[in-house]
Amino acid sequence: MKPLLLLALSITILFTSSCAQNKPGNDIRVGDRCEDCEAIYESPVPFEQLPNMVWLSDWEQKGRKLAVNGTVFRPDGSRAANVVIYIYHTDSTGVYPTKGDEKGIAKKHGYLRGWMKTNELGEYKFFTLRPGSYPEGNNPAHIHAIIKEPGKTEYWIDDYLFDDDPLLGEKERKKLQNRGGNGILAIKDVGNMIKAERNIYLGKNIPNYSN
Question: Which tens digit of pLDDT belongs to each residue from 44-85?
Fold first, then answer.
């Protein structure tokens, strides 16, 4: 077998194996319609091996560097460990960039995406470049997020939005459902990057959710 073909086959086998390990068993179904939420199972490594911090592939590229951290809380107020968070977003031009060899939902979400799992203190953090808004519309720039709790099916929470975004007007703010808590980021400029914090509250305003 040719080396390149063998390499492609090996990557496909590893990707398929990882997805299979991450698939849920008898998880309690929560949430509502969740377009492309199954992308969370496309993690390149099994969930149990995920760190609580992730650097997206654009981090070393030119652009406005962004670091977001936060804590995930259970409905009773305790910190939630082992919660998987999947994020994806556009590049600075507002498109979901692809390289042409994507598989599964990555064909739509592009390669600016990442997976992380909260540590024993419920903490998570990711590093990326600030995304741009869609070029064909007036949507505020955003970062999509999907949550997977142990024992429950995956569900979406409000996008990460930027408080200083001129496209995030009063009308757009009133539309927000506050799923998982407030997703609007208050940006802090520290010179070489911008930082923000978002805490996530499991089940908050999520349909069909029970503790």
Answer: 999 999 999 999 999 999 999 999 999 999 999 999 999 999
Q: Which pTM does this prediction carry?
A: 0.89
Superfamily of 3-201 according to CATH: Aromatic compound dioxygenase (2.60.130.10)
Look-up of token digits 């091996």: 49
User: Among 67, 77, 96, which residue's Cα sits nearest to residue 160?
Assistant: 67
Cβ neighbours of residue 192 under 8 Å, at least 6 residues apart?
65
Structure tokens at 11: 């990557």
Inter-residue contact 56 to 38 (CB < 8 Å) = no
User: What does each C-alpha distance from 33 to 46, 106, 115 come to in angstroms?
Assistant: 25, 19, 21
Residue 68, number of CB atoms within 10 A of its CB: 19
